[in-house]
Specification:
By secondary structure, the chain is of the alpha+beta class. It has 29 helices and 37 strands. A hairpin with a 2-residue loop joins β12 and β13. GO terms for molecular function: DNA binding; DNA topoisomerase type I (single strand cut, ATP-independent) activity; hormone activity; metal ion binding.
Length: 1014
């Protein structure tokens, strides 16, 4: 077996590109347990043959947060957040990246990290190594390496492989310091502000009154410009306009040397002094050849500025498009502060790609190509450059095409000669007053021919004059004008100001600008200008009134310098963090003490709860009606305010009250619906109950609305939630999972949960109209029940319009897997038929009901696993269960193969039923095609035998047998913790006879349910 070199990128798309560029042939592709692709190929490393295994994370694996006991806004003093501990939590628990990394790193000899080469990338490197160190002994420079690259091109990637280094711990620590400080400072001020002002004012149009060490100074720039505009007082001024006739009776306007006067009488005096003059005398004429310098290399900030001012893109959108172009291999890494090309940069070879291209060749003139100018070398990535020459038509997104063209033309302009123009200055004298004319004429357009945004306005023809000659005056007059205030800051101007004052980094500047827009502190007006809202203005004025340093850029700029010292190893993280925390804690305590200064500003602009809203539901403390105001309930008597869910419909729930606090219950509807207590949803009454949870997550033992009274079964999809009856949903009753977006709809007049449990599946029995039984096992209820998945329309991403595709795919995978590894078992204690079918060891397929006694006799540790059997869902006339954690890896395979299963989703329900019913021997049934498609898609790369027709003898499928150490099935089973707990061999009672897939489908098809146990 070859040694394994595990390589990890920051995004799956980057991993795919790297694998394709570094492998000599097409790499083998499979899916990790969480659906992220894994690319494998053979090659050489460290003077030996190895197998490369390339996969990826999805950005940061962990985020910084407070322990759960500090998450209550009501029970925790915000000042405590400066001193409390912090913890690292999974950035996205659903993606299960740590589990995937542990699984993929087994039997690994080397690890190469291909994260983005910036400080955030270094931090992710150490997040990954912390995971791998749990079962690997990593030594930087020996079996742990860091690849550094600036572009996803074959030469760059191969050069990175030849010059491997180690992760930079100092840069990672600087990110940890920034995360901790932003968390402590931001959460502390945000919680205090939000509670104070949301609890008092009803017309606030923001769900969160947030503070951020970078966000707030950014807002401060916008408000400062707004204040200048508001305080500006226009003033009239006067100037003298003179026109003279030069060549070919052409009128030329002259500029007065005094420019403008703010005294009208003085302006009239000077006009009268030249009023009698008929000609203007030329006293001087100079001609000078000038050059407009070509730009230096393109860095991130310049790209953001120009994309906003020239292309009309927001900074946030620009970075999103640029990252896509980078991961697709069209441009180099888009996050850099450097504008100086490296000494070994072969710009001519890059230009040659475009000189022969039909669309871009017109911009490359080899006679005009020169060395690029020396820019600023920040020591990070090279300037942003195009990597390949493609037509704009290849981009399906017009914004991507525009940004690609912009980067391409900008790069060509940096290596094209300067623009040369002739500047002519003519001085005229009329009596004692001096007037001038200035004209420009292009000699060589140079780079401006390529990059039109820097074109110099050229006069059609510079007039030819002679010194001491006089020319007739065609017009003399006074013009009156008025001074105008500066305009609101554009995004481009704001980016420049942030860079100048050291607010944010090239990567975070777009985030901060986007945040102040999303938080409703500024609004975007035509011309991509940022106009502060009333809320944003009051916040900044309040900070200036209490502590100006909270909004001025000086504090953050100094902190950025300290973080840079950590990154360079000149300072240690502990003292820097503690010093900054002490400063902001003192400022926070002073801010709290003097909050009245900001409150006075809010009183002027926002109405209090008592003056707004409408009566909605009763308060449990005073029994008076609370008012509903912008997703908040306010009690005017108690002066308490309670946040309620947004983006849905709220209505009082039948005047019923919470048994814990006597507040009237409220129903919230948004796809799924649930009821909640306004007090409990803000002040969770039990440990483990999170803020914002409704009654379907309440564990009160006797409350008739909590999940103890309304739960029917465990959710078979996510296996973490409970299927809870929504008591307000009738007559179209909904039984929803309180953790995920799966729900069952039941069509009946009355539905209630009974105290009895089903003897077959342990679900709670229900009363459907006048009938009683199990919702999952009673066949009479089958026509009433449908399973659905709620789709969040606000989220982006891939979608196809067939909402049931994923459920069908999971069930198809589980059934195919069951079919291929089924064994038939005679069990004497079974039903009278004497036959009982089970799947080893993930699933058990019952021909009919089974008692707990039978289960105990069949499964080692049965008494423990019986209680953990997941509940069942209905699909296509069969009752199934998607497995527990034991089969999460199998489910991950299914989720990741959306392309493979898209074909299955298009098949009719009858073809899907072929995997469940006894009709599988029908020659017209295409279930075998489904199995064949599945095998070739998922297992075809493991062994050539698997490409054979699945209808051949069972021996052809030997590699899929769970007990074969070579099979993927065996690996999935043996690497699971559940298998280690319930390890057992394949039964000797299996017939072991060859059988076709049709036979297997037939034997297994009569089963009513598949159950997975932990």
């Amino acid at each position: 077996m070859l040694p394994v070199v595990l390589m990890i990128a920051e995004k799956p798309s980057v991993a795919e590109t790297i694998a394709q560029k570094l492998s000599s042939q097409a790499p083998r592709v499979r899916k990790a347990l969480n659906g992220i692709p894994v690319h494998e190929w053979d090659g050489s490393f460290a003077n030996q043959r190895v197998m490369f295994r390339m996969t990826a994370v999805t950005g940061h694996v962990y985020g910084m947060d407070f322990p759960s006991k500090y998450n209550s806004w009501d029970k925790v003093d915000p000042a405590d957040l400066f001193e409390c501990p912090t913890v690292k939590t999974e950035a996205n628990e659903k993606q299960k990246v740590p589990i995937m990394l542990k699984a993929e790193s087994r039997n690994t000899s080397y690890v190469i990290l291909w994260l983005d080469c910036d400080k955030e990338g270094e931090n992710i490197c150490f997040e990954i190594t912390d995971i791998l160190c749990e079962h690997m002994r990593l030594a930087p420079g020996q079996n742990l390496f860091r690849a550094r690259f600036s572009a996803l091109t074959t030469p760059d990637l191969k050069r990175a492989m030849e010059t491997l280094t180690v992760p930079n711990e100092n840069e990672s620590k600087s990110v940890d310091a920034r995360q901790e400080l932003d968390l402590r400072i931001g959460c502390c001020f945000t919680r205090f502000q939000t509670k104070i002002f949301h609890g008092k004012y009803g017309s606030l149009d923001s769900a969160l009154i947030s503070y951020g060490p970078c966000q707030t100074p950014t807002l401060g720039f916008c408000v400062k410009r707004h204040d200048i505009i508001q305080q500006f007082k226009p003033e009239k001024f006067w100037t003298i306009r003179v026109s003279v006739i030069l060549d070919a009776e052409k009128d030329v306007s002259l500029s007065w040397s005094r420019n403008r006067l703010f005294d009208k009488e003085a302006a009239e005096y000077f006009l009268n002094s030249i009023k009698e003059s008929k000609t203007a005398k030329v006293t001087d004429c100079t001609k000078k050849e000038c050059a407009k310098k070509r730009p230096v290399g393109l860095n991130t900030v310049e790209m953001l500025r120009l994309a906003s001012s020239r292309l009309g893109f927001s900074p946030h959108h620009t970075m999103q498009v640029a990252e896509r172009l980078y991961t697709q291999g069209y441009i180099s890494y888009p996050r850099t502060e450097t504008t100086h090309y490296p000494a070994n940069f072969d710009y001519r070879s890059v230009l040659s790609k475009f000189s022969s291209h039909d669309q871009w060749s017109q911009y490359v003139t080899w006679d005009s190509i020169v060395q690029p100018l020396k820019g600023h070398d920040a020591g990070d990535h090279s300037p942003i450059t195009p990597l390949v020459a493609v037509n704009s038509s290849v981009f399906h997104d017009s914004d991507a095409a525009k940004l690609y063209e912009f980067v391409l033309k900008y790069f060509i302009s940096t290596v094209t000669e300067d623009c040369i123009y002739l500047e002519t200055n003519i001085t005229f004298k009329i009596q004692n007053e001096t007037f001038t004319f200035c004209g420009k004429e292009i000699i060589k357009p140079g780079f401006t021919k390529v990059y039109p945004f820097s074109v110099i306005s050229s006069d059609d023809q510079i007039p030819q004059v002679t010194v001491n000659s006089s020319y007739p005056i065609s017009e003399k007059k006074i013009t009156e004008s008025e001074t105008k205030p500066p305009d609101y800051l554009t995004e481009s101007e704001l980016i420049s100001m942030m860079e100048t004052h050291g607010i944010g980094t090239d990567a975070s500047i777009p985030v901060h600008i986007n945040n102040i827009c999303q938080r409703n502190y500024v609004k975007l007006i035509p011309g991509r200008k940022l106009q502060p809202t009333e809320l944003g203005i009051i916040l900044v004025h309040g900070y200036l009134k209490i502590d100006p340093e909270l909004v001025l850029p000086t504090m953050r700029a100094e902190l950025e310098k300290q973080l840079e010292l950590i990154a360079k190893g000149s300072a240690t993280i502990g003292p820097v963090v503690q010093h900054t925390v002490d400063i902001f804690k003192a400022k926070f305590l002073y801010f709290v003490k003097n909050i009245g200064g900001m409150d006075e500003l809010f009183e002027v602009s926002f109405s209090k709860h008592a003056d707004s809203g409408k009566p909605f539901s009763r308060c449990g403390k005073c029994r008076r009606y609370m008012k509903l105001v912008l997703n908040r309930l306010h009690c005017q008597v108690c002066q308490d305010t309670y946040s309620v869910p947004s983006d849905g419909t709220l209505r009082a729930f039948n005047d019923l009250r919470c048994p814990l606090d006597d507040f009237e219950l409220v129903e919230f509807s948004s796809g799924k619906s649930y009821i909640f207590c306004p007090y409990c949803i803000n002040n969770p009454p039990f440990d483990g109950m999170k803020k914002g949870n409704g009654c379907n997550n309440c564990s009160h033992p006797s409350c008739v609305y909590g999940f103890n009274s309304k739960t029917i079964a465990q959710c078979a999809e996510c296996e973490q939630g409970l299927m809870v009856l929504d008591p307000a949903s009738g007559p179209k009753w909904k039984i929803s999972c309180n953790k995920c977006n799966v729900f069952l709809s039941v069509q009946c007049k009355k539905l209630s949960v009974l105290e009895e449990t089903c003897g077959d599946c342990s679900s709670q029995c229900v009363a459907v109209d006048d009938k009683k039984g199990c919702l999952y096992c009673t066949e009479e209820f089958e026509a009433n029940v449908e399973m659905h998945r709620l789709v969040d329309q606000r989220r982006g991403g891939r979608g196809g319009g067939r909402g049931r595709g994923r459920e069908i795919s999971v069930i198809l995978l589980l059934n195919v897997y069951r079919t291929l590894s089924k064994e038939r078992l005679n069990h004497s204690s079974g039903r009278e038929s004497g036959k009982f079918y089970h799947h080893h060891p993930n699933f058990t397929n019952f021909d009919s009901n089974i008692t707990q006694v039978q289960w105990d006799s069949l499964v080692p540790g049965g008494s423990q696993s019986w209680s953990r059997l997941p509940q069942f869902t209905k699909r296509n006339g069969a009752v199934q269960a998607c497995g527990s954690r034991l089969v999460e890896m199998v489910k991950g395979l299914c989720r990741s193969h959306s392309g493979v299963f898209s074909g299955f989703n298009r098949r009719s329900d009858s073809s899907m039923n072929g995997l469940f019913s006894d009709d599988s021997q029908d020659p017209n049934n295409n279930s075998n095609d489904l199995v064949s498609d599945y095998l070739s898609a998922h297992y075809g790369s493991l062994d050539s035998n698997l490409d054979k027709d699945v209808d051949n003898s069972f021996s052809d499928l030997e590699l899929l047998w769970p007990n074969n150490p070579k099979s993927l099935a065996f690996k999935i089973l043996t690497e699971s913790k559940a298998h280690q707990r319930f390890r057992r061999n394949i039964s000797d009672e299996c017939c072991k006879k060859p059988c076709s897939v049709n036979d297997m489908v037939k034997y297994c098809g009569g089963g009513r349910r598949i159950a997975a146990y932990q």
